[in-house]
Amino acid sequence: MLASHLYRTPAPGEPLVLAVFSYRHDAHLVPGLLDNNRACVHGHVAWDDRGADAGLSPEPERRNRLLAEARRLGARWLLAVDPDERFEDRLAQRLPGMLAMGEGVLWHFDLREIFNANA
Hints:
- The chain is α/β, with parallel strands linked by helices.
- It has three helices and four strands.
- Strand 2, helix 1 and strand 3 form a beta-alpha-beta unit.
- It is globular and about 40 Å long.
């Protein structure tokens, strides 16, 4: 099931940035993900795969639907995230400068898996 939510509108001249992700077994981690990246993005597009009849829905289908919905909402930039990943607090301050470098740039972030709240 596809769902989207806008937290706020971009300031004039600011590009719309959306987080995109899918989940199934880690649905309990989604609220923490949203809390973590809310300051970095204007909203999110998510694919909830818990209702799939098969082991998993086809990955290209999920990706294409996420991208189509983000485009429909007017996203200029996407932050591809996973429910078990978190970004450092500084990303919210640094992201506008990174995006100002222009379109067509792909950024890669080193991430660490979250295994428990004390890790």
